[in-house]
Amino acid sequence: MAIGLCNLHTILDAYSLSLFLKTWSSICNGLMEEICQPDFSISSSTFPPRNTSGVREGMENKNPISFVFTSWSNMGFKEMDFGWGKPLWIAQRGGTKETIPNTVVLMETWEGIEAWVTMAEKHLDDLKNDVEFHKFAKLNPNINFTI
């Protein structure tokens, strides 16, 4: 059994997706008391606007590659149960270098953290050949499920 969900980020962010799925899971299991009641008033205090002017000062001649990092860890995705058990594996759709360029999504798994990386092919080749990087990561780890 698999659940697939597609949404526009302009409508639903990962935290809101987590609340939606937790609520759906609670309804499936008849746990009405566990239905999430989000508080939309706290977001501006949790993530207040920041002044990012001057962040790139001194980098004009270095051609840096900017990345967006986001974490889906600790959002409860791997704890959700729709009535047939907890998920074996959780993934996000991913994208291409055109749709979500230079993005790293950290996903919690039963064995640790997966990093879903999207970037230009030439930079991926550099990463694949980086010995230091391989000390901390497995590229495309094998996924085996035992049920």
Automatic annotation (TrEMBL):
GO terms for molecular function: acyltransferase activity. InterPro entries: CAT-like_dom_sf. It comes from the Eukaryota. Belongs to the plant acyltransferase family. It comes from Pisum sativum. Pfam families: Transferase. Keywords: Acyltransferase, Transferase. The keyword Acyltransferase applies. This is Uncharacterized protein.
